[in-house]
C-alpha cells in the first residue's frame, strides 16, 4: 500500500525533525574515514549493530514502538491484528493505520453509488410514469422542514468547526516546523563554528612550533567533512521545510471547502424554501459530488490524525528506552555510549595538545630573552612575562581547575593581545620596536591555536550529543511535550469538522428533495382543493 510522498510528509509532520536528525546522523557518517586516527578522531559507528565482532553488545530487538496504539486490523494480512508497532517503512503499518479510516471511505463509496442509482431511478420513474401522484401529508411537510432547518444549522456549525480547526492546525503545524528548523539551524551553526575553528588551526605556526603533520592532515579532512555535513543539513532542512510549508497551504483548500459547503447548504435551503426546483436539482448534483469528495478527505485527515498520534507516542517511547533497538533506530541510528565517550576523549586530547603547543611557545620563546644572534627565536622580546594558557584537562584527560596565574581559553586572546609589540623589519625579520613579548605574526598564530582549542572544548560535547542522539532525544521530548498535544487536538478538530459538514450536507441534500416535493404537493393541493359548492378553490 504505497502512499504519495507528499501525504507521507504531511502525515509525519512531527518527523520533519528527522530531516535534521538524518543530517546529524549524516555528519558522523561523513566523519568516519577522517576520524579513525589515534591522534584526532571521532570514531563513529552507524549503529550498535555495526560494533566490532569482538565486542559483546546486548540489545532488545523485540521492543515495539506504540505497540498497544498500533494494534489494529491489517487488511493485507487477512485482517489479522498488526503487531509490528510504529514503523513508517513497513507497508503493513500503513495498511493498518489506513484501515482505521475505512468507514469514511466506505460511506463515500456507498453515498456516491446509491445516490447515483437513486437519481437514475427517479429520472426513469418520471420518464416512464408521466402520471404523478400529488398526495400530501402535513406531518411529512412539517417534519421535512424541521429536519431541513436542523441539518442546515448543522452544516453551518460543521463549517465553523472546520474553519476554526484548520486555522489552529495550521498554527500548530507552523509552530512545530519553526521549532524543528530552529533546532536544525542551531546544529548547522555549531558545525560551522567548529569548522571555522578547524580552519584557523590549519594556519597554526607559532614561532616555528607546529602541530604534528598527521594532526594537520586530519584537521584538513575533518573540516571538509564538517562543511559537507553542515551544507547537507542546511540544504535538507531548507528543502523539506519549504515542501512542508507548501503542503501546509492545503489549509486554503480546507477554507474553500468550508466556504463552499456553507454556501451550498444555505443556497440549497433557500432554493427548497422558495420551491426553485431546477436550482435544487443542480445543487443536488453538485452536492452529491462535493459530499463524496469531502468524505474521502475526512478519511485522509483521520489517517493523518492517527499517524500523528502514533508518532508522538513512538517518540516518547524512543526517548524513554535509549538502549533498546526500535524502528526509529533505522532512521536515526545512534552510537553506543562507549563510542560517544571515545569521541569526547579524542576532542579533549587534541584540545590538550593545542594548549600545550601554545604554552611551549610562551615558555620557550616569548618569555625568554634571547641574544640577537639567536634567530629566529630572537625578535627583541621584552617586558613583563606572559601568563601560560590554562589546560582544561589533566594528563589523563579528566577535568582540571585552572591555577592562579593561568589564563582561560575564553579570555586568552584578549590577555595575550596586551603583550603584542609594534614591529619593524630588519634584514627580512620582524623585530619588536616597542616593549612586548609577541609580534603581530606570532600573536595571530597563537590566537589561532587558542581559537581552535576553544572551539573543540566548546563543541566537542555537542558533537557527542549529536552522535549519541542526546540532542535528538531532547528535541523529541520538547516536541512531544509542547507540540504534540496541539497537533493531535487540532487535526482531530479538522476531521470532526469535515465529518460534521459532510454528514449535514448529505442529509440536507436528501431533505432538499423531500421538502421541495412536499411543498410542491402542498401548493398543488391548495390550488385544487374543492370549494364549498364543489368547485375548485
Task: Summarize this entry quickly.
The chain is built from 13 helices and 4 strands. The protein is mainly alpha-helical and 537 residues long. β1 (73-74) and β2 (80-81) form a beta hairpin.
Overall mean pLDDT score? 77
String of helices and strands: HHEEHHHHHHHHEEHHH
Q: Roughly how many Å apart are the termini?
A: 66 Å
Estimated helix fraction: 55-70%
Shape: elongated
The biggest beta sheet, please? 2 strands, antiparallel
Please identify the oligomeric state. Answer: single chain
Which class of secondary structure composition applies to the elements? mainly alpha
Query: What is the CA-based Rg, rounded?
Result: 37 Å
Q: Unreliable runs, pLDDT <50, ≥5 residues?
A: 1-60, 533-537
Strand neighbour order, sheet with most strands: 1-2
Please report the number of helical segments: 13
Strand content: under 5%
Strand segment tally: 4
Structure description:
The protein has 537 residues and is mainly alpha-helical. 64% of the residues lie in helices and 2% in strands. The chain has helices at 5-11, 17-31, 91-99, 102-128, 138-201, 213-248, 251-273, 277-320, 337-366, 412-417, 440-467, 470-482, 484-527; strands at 73-74, 80-81, 423-426, 429-432. It has a two-stranded antiparallel sheet. Strands 3-4 form a two-stranded antiparallel sheet. β1 (73-74) and β2 form a beta hairpin. The longest helix is centred in the N-terminal third of the chain and has 64 residues, at 138-201. The protein is elongated and about 130 Å long. It starts with a helix and ends in a 10-residue tail after the last helix.
Amino acid at each position: 500500500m504505497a502512499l504519495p510522498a507528499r501525504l507521507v510528509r504531511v502525515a509525519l509532520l512531527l518527523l520533519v525533525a528527522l530531516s535534521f536528525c538524518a543530517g546529524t546522523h549524516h555528519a558522523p557518517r561523513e566523519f568516519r574515514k577522517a576520524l579513525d586516527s589515534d591522534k584526532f578522531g571521532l570514531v563513529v559507528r552507524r549503529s550498535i549493530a555495526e560494533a566490532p565482532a569482538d565486542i559483546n553488545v546486548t540489545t532488545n530487538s523485540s521492543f515495539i514502538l506504540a505497540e498497544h496504539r498500533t494494534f489494529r486490523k491489517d487488511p493485507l494480512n487477512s485482517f489479522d491484528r498488526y503487531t509490528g508497532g510504529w514503523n513508517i517503512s513497513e507497508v503493513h503499518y500503513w495498511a493498518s493505520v489506513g484501515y482505521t479510516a475505512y468507514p469514511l471511505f466506505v460511506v463515500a463509496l456507498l453515498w456516491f453509488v446509491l445516490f447515483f442509482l437513486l437519481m437514475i431511478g427517479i429520472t426513469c420513474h418520471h420518464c416512464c410514469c408521466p402520471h404523478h401522484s400529488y398526495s400530501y401529508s402535513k406531518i411529512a411537510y412539517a417534519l421535512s422542514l424541521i429536519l431541513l432547518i436542523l441539518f442546515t444549522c448543522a452544516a453551518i456549525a460543521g463549517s465553523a468547526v472546520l474553519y476554526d480547526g484548520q486555522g489552529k492546525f495550521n498554527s500548530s503545524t507552523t509552530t512545530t516546523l519553526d521549532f524543528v528548523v530552529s533546532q536544525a539551524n542551531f546544529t548547522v551553526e555549531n558545525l560551522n563554528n567548529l569548522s571555522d575553528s578547524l580552519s584557523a588551526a590549519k594556519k597554526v605556526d607559532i614561532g616555528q612550533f607546529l602541530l604534528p603533520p598527521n594532526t594537520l592532515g586530519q584537521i584538513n579532512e575533518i573540516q571538509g567533512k564538517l562543511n559537507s555535513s553542515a551544507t547537507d543539513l542546511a540544504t535538507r532542512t531548507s528543502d523539506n521545510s519549504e515542501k512542508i510549508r507548501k503542503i501546509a497551504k492545503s489549509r486554503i483548500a480546507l477554507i474553500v471547502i468550508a466556504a463552499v459547503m456553507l454556501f451550498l447548504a444555505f443556497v440549497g435551503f433557500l432554493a427548497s424554501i422558495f420551491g426553485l426546483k431546477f436550482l435544487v436539482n443542480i445543487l443536488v448534483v453538485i452536492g452529491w459530488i462535493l459530499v463524496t469528495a469531502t468524505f474521502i478527505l475526512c478519511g485522509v485527515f483521520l489517517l493523518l490524525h492517527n499517524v500523528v498520534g502514533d508518532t508522538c507516542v513512538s517518540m516518547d517511547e524512543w526517548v524513554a528506552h535509549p538502549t533498546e533497538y526500535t524502528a526509529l533506530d533505522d532512521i536515526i541510528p545512534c552510537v553506543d555510549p562507549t563510542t560517544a565517550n571515545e569521541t569526547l576523549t579524542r576532542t579533549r586530547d587534541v584540545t590538550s595538545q593545542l594548549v600545550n603547543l601554545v604554552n611551549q611557545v610562551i615558555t620557550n620563546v616569548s618569555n625568554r630573552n634571547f641574544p640577537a644572534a639567536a634567530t629566529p627565536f630572537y625578535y627583541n622580546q621584552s617586558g613583563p612575562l606572559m601568563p601560560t594558557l590554562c589546560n582544561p584537562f589533566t594528563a589523563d584527560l579528566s577535568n582540571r581547575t585552572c591555577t592562579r596565574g593561568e589564563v582561560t581559553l575564553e579570555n586568552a586572546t584578549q590577555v595575550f593581545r596586551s603583550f603584542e609589540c609594534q614591529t619593524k623589519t630588519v634584514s627580512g625579520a620582524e623585530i619588536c620596536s616597542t616593549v612586548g613579548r609577541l609580534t603581530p605574526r606570532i600573536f595571530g598564530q597563537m590566537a589561532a591555536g587558542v581559537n581552535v582549542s576553544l572551539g573543540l572544548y566548546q563543541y566537542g560535547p555537542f558533537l557527542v550529543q549529536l552522535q549519541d542522539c542526546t540532542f535528538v532525544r531532547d528535541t523529541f521530548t520538547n516536541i512531544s511535550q509542547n507540540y504534540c498535544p496541539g497537533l493531535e487536538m487540532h487535526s482531530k478538530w479538522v476531521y470532526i469538522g469535515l465529518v460534521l459538514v459532510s454528514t449535514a450536507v448529505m442529509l440536507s441534500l436528501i431533505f432538499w428533495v423531500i421538502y421541495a416535493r412536499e411543498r410542491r404537493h402542498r401548493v398543488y393541493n391548495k390550488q385544487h382543493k374543492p370549494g364549498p359548492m364543489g368547485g375548485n378553490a
